């Protein structure tokens, strides 16, 4: 019989989420430049010259993940009974951020169309599209349906959250619940 994973106390979980979301952004930015350096094979001459086709979705992804980190940090402050924004204030702020994210994500579609017509670098387009999908997944995870990993008896379920997304049976994310509270839904 598989061993059940031990759950962390809520404070530790929120602290983990707040810190590791920020560290994840730093890691992705570092990996982006490392991969760009390796793929471009220019021995560092243009390693930090930005390819906007791939860098723009990295910025959007980072923006969404940083929003999530600040959300969890605020929830941690609430749990610790420190000065924090209320659920309604969070709902108001993140309702606006949700739509800013949608605009940023939609704008990339135009960028990718222009890149395709101008015959831009294929590696930049591929990396950009992968980062774009990651940004969409984070947007869905924070602002709509919880897509975080699940475990059953210590076994990690990867496909299960995706099934819930496509069948509409997933749980609303905590942030979405706060937005709904603000909207009076």
List keywords for this structure.
185 residues, mainly alpha, globular
Helix content: over 70%
Oligomeric state of this protein:
single chain
The string of secondary-structure elements, in order, is HHHHEEHH
* Continuous helix count: 6
The Cα radius of gyration reads 19 Å
Number of E-state strands: 2
| Beta-strand residue fraction | under 5%
Largest sheet: 2 strands, antiparallel
> Regions with pLDDT < 50 over 5+ consecutive residues?
1-5
Q: Residue-averaged pLDDT, rounded?
A: 83
Gross morphology:
globular
> How widely separated are the two ends?
43 Å
Helix/strand structural class: mainly alpha
> Biggest sheet: strands side by side, in what order?
1-2
Question: Could you explain the architecture of this structure?
Answer:
This protein is mainly alpha-helical and 185 residues long. It is built from six helices and two strands. The chain has a two-stranded antiparallel sheet with strand order 1-2. Strand 1 (150-152) and strand 2 (155-157) form a beta hairpin. Helix 3 packs across helix 6 (174-183). The protein is globular. The N and C termini lie far apart (43 Å). Residues 1-5 have low confidence and may be disordered.
């Amino acid at each position: 019989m598989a061993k059940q994973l031990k759950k962390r106390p809520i404070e530790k979980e929120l602290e983990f989420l707040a810190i590791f979301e920020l560290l994840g952004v730093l890691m992705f930015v570092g990996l982006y430049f490392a991969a760009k350096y390796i793929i471009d094979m220019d021995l560092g001459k243009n390693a930090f010259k930005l390819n906007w086709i791939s860098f723009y979705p990295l910025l959007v992804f980072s923006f969404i993940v940083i929003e999530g980190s600040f959300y969890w940090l605020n929830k941690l402050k609430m749990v610790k009974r420190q000065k924090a924004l209320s659920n309604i204030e969070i709902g108001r702020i993140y309702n606006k951020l949700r739509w800013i994210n949608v605009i940023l994500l939609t704008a990339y579609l135009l960028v990718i169309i222009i890149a395709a017509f101008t015959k831009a670098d294929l590696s930049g387009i591929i990396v950009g599209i992968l980062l774009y999908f990651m940004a969409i997944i984070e947007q869905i995870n924070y602002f709509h349906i919880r897509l975080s990993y699940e475990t059953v008896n210590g076994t990690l379920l990867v496909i299960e959250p995706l099934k819930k997304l496509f069948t509409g049976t997933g749980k609303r994310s905590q942030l979405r619940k706060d937005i709904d509270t603000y909207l009076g839904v």
